[in-house]
Amino acid sequence: MYYLLNLAIMIKVVLIGAGNVACHLYKAFKKADAVEVVQWYNRSTHAIIQYQNETEICDKINNLKDADVYIIAISDDAITNVSRKLPFNDKLVVHTSGSLNIHGLDKKNRRGVFYPLQTFSKDVELDFSNVPFCIEVLEKKDLPILKQLAEQIYSPFYKINSEQRQILHLAAVYVNNFTNQLYRIAHEISDIKNINFDILKPLISETANKVQNVSPYLAQTGPALRNDKKTINKHLKLLDNETHKEIYKLLTKAIQETHGK
Amino acid sequence: MYYLLNLAIMIKVVLIGAGNVACHLYKAFKKADAVEVVQWYNRSTHAIIQYQNETEICDKINNLKDADVYIIAISDDAITNVSRKLPFNDKLVVHTSGSLNIHGLDKKNRRGVFYPLQTFSKDVELDFSNVPFCIEVLEKKDLPILKQLAEQIYSPFYKINSEQRQILHLAAVYVNNFTNQLYRIAHEISDIKNINFDILKPLISETANKVQNVSPYLAQTGPALRNDKKTINKHLKLLDNETHKEIYKLLTKAIQETHGK
Question: What span, in angstroms and rounded, lies between the C-alpha atoms of A117 and B207?
Fold first, then answer.
């Protein structure tokens, strides 16, 4: 593996954008043996000017340098437009969006997707070995370069088409945003009774750990699964907030539908 | 800390019940320096007979031995009845239930609660340092013995009254059962498009990790928080299952209520 990496040909990258994903990618590529960020473009250099001693900073799209791959890591709405403005043809241009179709990129270039399926926080250094990449290309010959990019930052990667990627983006809303809202509800109802939220943290961790090895279907337990009406009614009586109550009822129903109760 | 543990007086325990919690507690106490399970009672010895060379196994409640604490780890519905049948008075008797009030124990004995807030799997050895105990007593003098029990198995512990414990039990349903059902939905919609569920596992872990240090309120991201109607509608169109759709809408609404959108 290491031998292979050392033999890998240097990949020249132009990075486009200055948001969370772009910044984390920049830092990861910087540490990689066989990736060179030859230029970092953003419409305003304000956010990236601090890196001007490490790489070429640029805010004129017509001045983009030659590279093996152009990575557009900006908000979904702006990707198509920026891809149209690129001042060259037949280069490999990829975006990092979970929901934009690969055809959202202007067809004058070879198109691809390099979507990291993870939640990114500013200021927290990311371990890219925990960031799986969804890779898509239109021309087979472009696959190795995206694979090498992922390998260079020790990320797992999967070939995922645009239709699948949309589903993954949706699934990510369930396991990240919606799950986090359930944590929030637990925090809220605990706070009201002066209960330290720390007590719940090991259970939160263990619930996530369990499904790393066991399917969520088999991992399920609790009053909804057992159809324990006494406990369910007791819980509903404890809830004041109407939305919390609706969520309790709906997820209880969903568990029972899944398990055929 | 270690010095203290070594000086601790041996606690004699009689364990009542043969379910998941009882079995995990037995194994943890067995390894502890200053806890001795002097007897293990169950109405049928079938499930625990394999331990007869290590401790005294018993199925006659009238034959219970003298001990410092009697731990009733059986199903909620049966606790009150078993506590009434105990053939002694003024001993410390605790249950391990998340939802039963401390007064659910017969008042002829000194009462307490020793509730482990964690999800238990059969056959998987448990690390009790990840199992916080909710401790409750009616008489202050009984507190040290429950604290020592928790310390002896390296578990964190919190003083939690019966009202708070009910809320924690409810909160646990949100962060464990309901969260697991969201994982299940993600698994289901991924399967339909032949997507490997493994891709989502790092995100599941990171979502749980994040709230170990940041409040769920601050950890929130995504289309609901941004009120990104375009993405929300796109997602709703991708969902066929009515319950999945209802959950998407309701949790989106909940996130927006929480964040005042």
Answer: 12
